[in-house]
Design a protein that fits this description.
Length: 201
């Protein structure tokens, strides 16, 4: 992947997004983009005339980071059709989240408020095209799970499938494993990968 811009602001934004996503990239000049052999170029619309590879532009930088990473994954995989968008939610006093799109994890995070998390999930659903939208939520904290679902059922949220997942053995063992919500994120990842019983949103 190449970043092809001579403008400092967009370059910094693209570089921060890619480094935060663990994606390596080449820094190239806009005039070098025509000969660039990579799979994708990030550039500005005013500098994009000579790009040979598929390109994404600076408006990517104004999106939710998970949406931006999802668009990168979709372009890099050359998907002609949209992939599945799957959310794993570990509800609790701190709610863990793991998001998969086109077979890649695009977010692992935790939220102090279940309602805030529900609003974030709705934003990601609205920002990415998807063949299926699936929310897999752990069954260990019914009040917190209910708060997430109430936010997801607000007007304007895209339709999604809901699965309730048995949380047994989804939490990693060991002490001091929840710095920054790490344990919640790992539990959410296990819930996302496990699948559960269908339920009505």
């Amino acid at each position: 992947m190449g970043v092809a811009t001579a403008r400092g602001g967009p370059y910094y934004g693209f570089a921060s997004l890619l480094r935060g996503s663990g994606i390596r990239f080449d820094a190239i000049l806009p005039e070098e983009a025509a000969a660039y052999g990579g799979d994708l170029v990030l550039t500005t619309r005013s500098e994009s005339a000579s790009c040979a590879a598929p390109a994404l532009y600076e408006d990517l930088l104004g999106l939710d980071p998970a949406v931006a990473r999802g668009m990168l994954v979709e372009k890099l995989r050359g998907a002609a059709e949209p992939g599945d968008l799957v959310f794993g939610v570990d509800p609790g006093s701190r709610t863990g989240l793991s998001v998969e799109y086109c077979g890649a994890e695009i977010e692992a995070s935790s939220y102090p408020s279940p309602g805030e998390l529900g609003s974030h999930i709705a934003e990601v659903m609205s920002g990415l095209r998807a063949a299926r939208r699936v929310v897999r939520i752990g069954d260990g904290d019914a009040p917190a799970a209910g708060a997430v679902l109430r936010a997801l059922c607000a007007p304007g949220c895209p339709e999604f499938e809901l699965e309730v997942v048995d949380e047994h053995d989804t939490s990693p063992r060991g002490r001091n494993r929840n710095q920054g919500g790490k344990r919640d994120m790992l539990s959410a990842r296990s819930i996302r990968m496990r699948g559960g019983r269908p339920a009505a949103p």
